[in-house]
Amino acid sequence: QVQLVESGGGLVQAGGSLRLSCAASRRTFSTSVMGWFRQAPGKEREFVAAITWSGGTTYYADSVKVRFTVSSDNTKNTANLQMNSLKPEDTAVYYCAAARPIRYTGTFSPGSFESWGQGTQVTVSS
């Protein structure tokens, strides 16, 4: 099992920025895709962004395109999520997750990801 540890959450005003990081204990076939999900109170966990370790292909939910950027640092086994122009509706617990190679169908399902971090709270005030 790969361990994932997120960091970087916090409280920010609308229009501000935050950067989340996810450190993986190791890179394996099971971490081919690194994803970010979020879950707001009373809502289902939803896909935000993802990146492949090899090739660096990126994927985004429509709600965060242009505003969020996902990246990876292969030398440090970390995946990052730069969040700009934050809105109150971005408030949620953000989770990092890892998956084996999976097909992108316009979104990624949380059930396709095998390893999860503990989550980090992001709160955007209006």
- Major sheet size, sense and barrel closure: 7 strands, mixed
Rg computed from alpha carbons, rounded to a whole number of angstroms: 13 Å
How far apart are the termini? 39 Å
**Strand-pairing-aware structural class:** mainly beta
Instruction: Catalogue the unreliable spans.
Output: none
Mean pLDDT, all residues: 95
The global form is globular
What's the total count of β strands? 11
Helix-strand sequence: EEEEEEEEEEE
What can be said about this structure in brief?
This protein is mainly beta. The chain is built from no helices and 11 strands. Helices cover 0% and strands 48% of the residues.
Write the layout of secondary structure elements.
Blueprint: E1 4-7, E2 10-13, E3 18-24, E4 33-39, E5 46-52, E6 58-60, E7 68-73, E8 78-83, E9 92-99, E10 115-116, E11 120-125
Parallel strand pairs: 2-11
Antiparallel strand pairs: 1-3, 3-8, 4-5, 4-9, 5-6, 7-8, 9-10, 9-11
